[in-house]
Design brief:
Strand order of the largest sheet: 1-9-8-5-6
CATH architecture: Sandwich
Helix content: 10-25%
Radius of gyration: 16 Å
Distance between the termini: 39 Å
Structural class: mainly beta
Order of helices and strands: HEEEHEEEEEE
Length: 195
């Protein structure tokens, strides 16, 4: 019962974040019109993918992941699939009315630690762009969800280790997720275009 309440509260909170939008973005991004990624992919001198790069689903970006001084490394990140679900997939959760009017998306990605830092148990968070003024975070259920569990990286995740992650995103008012963003606190995201 406790797990169900946690899931319900988390789903409701996620919808509130969606409506506000500004809370789901890094402070440096602001809450005005979101910058559009560039069409051509480029690599910086340090080997990471340039902010503002636009990629197709299945293409890999190389990014720095720095949660804190202890968890600092470089990862290769590939959004592998974005598929539309059905709101009835979430029937075990007590969704509020705005959530029930959302479109459900499952976003899958692959992660590889290509640096030397330890990223054990660190979260990978991607965002879904619904419109130029709305980017949504993944839903945190607070309990397991077999179709798509949003779990942190494995307990041991050092150099060369690989993992798969999955996130549930809700696009309000039967909206559509047009891009998936990696937003590391910079104004320009790295984006994967959903076709």
């Amino acid at each position: 019962m406790r797990a169900r309440r946690m899931a319900t509260a988390a789903a409701a909170a996620a919808v509130l974040l969606l409506a506000g939008c500004s809370n789901s973005l890094p402070e440096s991004a602001g809450n005005d019109t979101l910058p559009s990624p560039t069409k051509d992919s480029s690599t910086l001198r340090n080997g990471t993918t340039s902010p503002g790069t636009e990629l197709d689903i299945g293409r890999t970006a190389v990014v720095r992941y720095r949660a804190n001084p202890r968890h600092d490394s470089r990862i290769s990140l590939t959004v592998t699939k974005v598929r539309e679900g059905k709101i009835k997939d979430l029937k075990r959760f007590n969704l509020n009315a705005p959530a029930r009017r959302s479109t459900v998306y499952y976003v899958s990605a692959r992660v590889r630690n290509t640096g030397t830092g330890d990223l054990s148990r660190q979260p990978i968070t991607l965002y879904g762009k619904v419109s130029d003024k709305l980017v949504v975070p993944p839903v945190e259920f607070g309990t397991t969800f077999g179709r798509c569990d949003h779990e942190p990286l494995p307990e041991k995740f050092g150099k060369g280790d690989r993992a798969r992650v999955c996130m549930v995103m809700l696009a309000p008012r039967h909206g559509k997720i047009r891009e998936v963003h990696w937003r590391p606190g910079k104004p320009e995201p790295i984006a994967w275009t959903v076709r």
